[in-house]
Design goal:
This protein is an alpha/beta fold. It has two domains: about 230 residues, Aspartate Aminotransferase, domain 2 (3-Layer(aba) Sandwich), CATH 3.40.640.10; about 90 residues, Alpha-Beta Complex (Aspartate Aminotransferase, domain 1). The chain has 13 helices and twelve strands. The strands form three sheets. Strands 1-7-6-5-4-2-3 form a seven-stranded mixed beta sheet, with helices on both faces. The chain has a three-stranded antiparallel beta sheet with strand order 9-12-11, with helices on one face. The two termini are about 20 Å apart.
Length: about 350
């Protein structure tokens, strides 16, 4: 009954089978293998446009490399204050960019508003040598609050960014959950809306360790190749990462797994909504639920064996409950029943 994160889950059987199937014979190393080469075409078909795909094994590496590509050492990376680049990547974007500064921005429900971005860019006084120069913005999809940017919100942010010469990056660690919630084409919330580079996450969605930087601005591909190698993220046995990503996108597996997690999160949210004393910090859209509860209820859930994180620190009465791709209805229903008893 572990709701701490979707990272606590194992791997999907289909993805494990793909890794085993890839473990046959000798193939070209460093991404020259057939699986990695065919992955490019599969991802291009998924996004309905030509792309360049760079598999890596962590979301931190994917985010940091993509942002370093879009941001010079004297640049500013605009990020929501709760997003990973601002607080959960140990300075990796700054490190890989050679010194760029992550500038946190506020925003309701985990999202940055276009007006907020425009104000931040203006306040930086572009062209003033004393200030870091606006260079990129990173959007988390789904957000750290479990909410989802709509296509028009992304387009508005990208319009502000591009009008001011900024690149647009999307941290898609839970990209599948966002697409499953919106029911849209992946292109609608990426390149069609103005996104230049995407971190396409699979680890939280059922892979062992597999992420990819998907470049829609293909003229930067050669540079990213060198950056990935220099950063130590060009794997010699790349086929095993590509096998995971290939299985993830084949036959709609990624959306089925995400849809299952989202459905259980809705079930959890709807169940807790009927419990006296429970309110919600954010709307339930993807696979995360943020209920606010009395302290006695929180302590009771912990004693009953449920595992979770408090959102905002040890004294917070807001929980972050994350449902994984292999979440079970029984665990969700047990938590709701326990909360009712404790109420």
């Amino acid at each position: 009954m572990d709701f701490r994160s979707d990272n606590v889950a194992g791997a999907a059987p289909e993805i494990l089978a793909a890794v085993i199937a890839a473990n046959v014979g000798a193939v070209t190393s460093y991404g020259g293998d057939p699986l990695t080469l065919q992955l490019q075409a599969k991802v291009a078909a998924l996004f309905e446009t030509e792309v360049d795909v760079f598999p890596v094994v962590t979301g931190t590496a994917a985010n940091a490399l993509a942002l370093a590509l879009l941001t010079p050492p004297y640049g500013a990376i605009y990020s929501h204050a709760d997003a990973h680049p601002a607080g959960d990547e140990c300075g990796a974007p700054e490190f890989y960019s050679g010194g760029a500064k992550v500038v946190p921005l506020p925003g309701a429900d985990g999202r940055i508003a276009a007006a907020t971005l425009a104000q931040a860019i203006a306040a930086a006084e572009p062209g003033t040598v004393h200030h870091v120069q606006p260079a990129s913005v990173t959007l988390t999809q789904a957000t750290e609050a479990g909410t989802v940017y709509r296509p028009e919100q992304i387009a508005a942010l990208a319009a502000v960014a591009h009008a001011n010469g900024l690149g647009v990056h999307m941290d898609g660690a839970r990209f599948a959950n966002a697409v499953a919630f919106l029911g849209c084409a992946p292109a609608d919330i990426t390149w069609r809306a103005g996104v230049d580079a995407l971190t396409f996450g699979a680890t939280k969605g059922g892979a062992l360790a597999a992420e990819a930087v998907v470049l829609f601005r293909r003229e930067r591909a050669a540079e990213l190749g060198f950056r990935r190698k220099r950063a130590g993220h060009l794997l010699s046995k790349m086929r095993f990462v590509s096998a995971q990503l290939d299985a993830y996108v084949t036959g709609g597996l990624w959306l089925r797994l995400a849809g299952h997690a989202n459905a259980l999160a809705r079930r959890l949210g709807e169940g807790l909504a009927g419990v006296p004393g429970v309110t919600f910090r954010f709307p339930v859209e993807a696979n995360e639920v943020f209920p606010e509860m009395p302290e006695a209820m929180i302590a009771g859930l912990a004693r009953a064996g449920f595992r979770f994180h408090r959102w905002g620190g040890p004294g917070s009465r807001t929980l972050r409950l994350v449902v994984a791709f292999d979440g079970r209805e029984a665990d969700v229903d047990a938590l709701v029943a326990a909360a009712r008893r404790l109420a």
